[in-house]
Amino acid sequence: MKVTSVDCHILVVRERESSPLETALDNVVVEIHTDENITGIGEVESNPWVVQAFIHSSGAHTMDHSLGKLLIGKDPQQPQAIWNYLYEKSLLAGRRGAGINAIGALDMAIWDAFGKYEKQPIWKLLGGTQHSAITPYASLLPLGYTLRSYQGSMIEKIRWARFAGFKAVKIEVMIKGPHAHPGLQESDDAIVETVAMARAELGPDIQLMVDVGYCWNDWKEALRVIQRIEKYDIYFVECPLPPDNFEDLGRLSRACDMRIAAGELLTTRLEFEALVRNVDVLQPDVGRVGGITETMRVVELAAAHGKLVVPHCWKSGIGIAATAQIAAFAPNCPYFEYAPAEVSDSPIRRELVTEVSKLKNGQFPLPGLPGLGVRLNPDAMQKFSISSANPYVESR
User: Fold this and answer.
1) Pairing mode of beta strands 281-282, 308-309
2) Whose CB among 75, 126, 301, 371 lies 3.0–4.6 Å from 112's, allowing a Cys bridge?
3) 365 forms bridges with which residues in the sheet?
């Protein structure tokens, strides 16, 4: 099997009625076509136009060719070798950041084509599983431009997740710091209050995770607040400090009893090597870290250090399907992030792919279809596809 062509589609929700924190309002979807009439698909949570440039634009230097051009003629049955080749040949502009994000989307598509060719789900190609099912946590992003409306939206979505049967829920408490919801810049007391409201609505039997979105710079301030919410039985606190502040993450993790989770923005296992000793839970985003190939290297790194992996995921059903394959394989992955389409504010999340898994007793069955196990909805692709021009730039 050989790659014959690579397509890169930019999707945009033209009417932006959703939350400014909703990153699924745009997307980049790649398709890998082969001489066996098999197409693999992938995506990544990154700037679509920058990723598209890495895939389609070549420079003059031998380490600066387009990733799409480099893929032509490669065999998708050798994803690890392809990953190493793409990394080596894109060193000038790649190595980290969006260059790795682009490789991640392509790697996801390569594994999808490989699985379809072998007529196997990807987790079987990775080596099988010890799991009988996989457990998602409902990742809930509230809306609201005041604290009360934000909290009210959170309660509504928690109530939906509880009645839907989820065993675990994560709330996005994005109300303080540089990445707070627009209009909100609240106190540490408000964070504690919001967590208390979430636990009261969930009851005692559902796991609760909390994402505070890098809201603190001082690890001692973070520690004081985390100690105040420990009584609400939190499974982990995600991203309490800036993503590259590994040393302070370590100080925080060692000082508190609660698990500290981080890593959603990191690229390659090389960055995770700097993080792994400093947190309890590693959160690679399957596309952003470099694809399924690189995520598996992070899984192995975490296992070697006795750490958990709970992958980050926030785009469409493509990324969710890839994350589910990791959750199915990795023995140190108790949960994976799942943004329910039913309460998503992004029509791309709701419409882009077909989804077949149904929640039963808080779990999904192991993925059973070949490759990623999802298909693109052609109507949604047509509806959201745009030219390469960036409408956010044009609108200024």
Assistant:
1) parallel
2) 371
3) 133
Predicted pLDDT at 396: 42
Strands 133-134 and 364-365: antiparallel
Tell me how far apart the alpha carbons of residues 138 and 153 are, in angstroms, rounded to a whole number. Answer: 15
Name the phi and psi angles at 77, rounded to 5.
Answer: -75, 0
- 38 and 98, same domain (yes or no): yes
Name the residue among 19, 17, 16, 26 with its Cα closest to residue 385.
26
pLDDT digits (tens, 9 = 90+) for 314-325: 999 999 999 999
Write out the two tokens for 184.
């909100």
Same domain flag for 231 and 209: yes
What is the C-alpha to C-alpha distance for residues 31 and 384, in angstroms, rounded to an integer? 16
Q: Which helix (H) or strand (E) holds 140?
A: strand 136-140
Alpha-carbon distance 336 to 319, whole Å? 11
Regarding whether 149 and 92 lie in a shared domain, the answer is: no
Instruction: State whether the Cα torsion 180-183-189-194 is positive or negative.
Output: negative
